[in-house]
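quick one
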Amino acid sequence: MITDFQLEPLFSASTIAARLTSLAGEIAVQMPPEFVAIAILKGSFVFAADLVRALAARQVNPEVDFMTLASYGTQTVSSGNVRLLRDAEIGVENKHVLLIDDILDSGRTLKFARNHLLARGAKSAKVCVLLDKTSSRQPKPEILADFVGFACPQEFVAGYGMDYAHKCRGLPFVAILCQ
Ligand code: IMP
Ligand code: MG
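structure w/ inosinic acid:
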């Protein structure tokens, strides 16, 4: 457990806002007209809030729901064991789904979520992440993202909804946690 840490800014609030505008444009042209956006809590709550509003600015208005998954405890290393704490309420049978998460790393979280929604009858399940840590990762991830905000170094990051031990979620920027 890190008890004393510093934050090194990685993506500023204005950089994130500009990227979300273009990301919403990519989603608007590639997703079908009707879909369900499902944000994976808790780390994606700020990203998802900004993304659905950037989509609305392009007249894209998906149904929005949330599911809560857990794989991290309060440590900076994944437990590797994904648990469903709360399922999405909206029925996804025969619907297209866009999963929204903060970070893609090993891919275990999003693979679990996608398999779960396909098992519930979703017609398709695409993946949108703010940060993709996979470009430099070995072994390769278990799932690829369809929409990516930024490539991210293999560092522990926090802010913009992402936490370190439940802190830092309210920071308007993404930062690397340094000891
Ligand atoms: P994966 O299952 O290994 O792909 O890990 C993805 C999940 O772990 C994401 O939903 C994040 O919530 C969490 N995660 C991965 N890296 C970080 C990080 O650097 N900071 C905060 N959460 C992280
Ligand atoms: Mg998460």
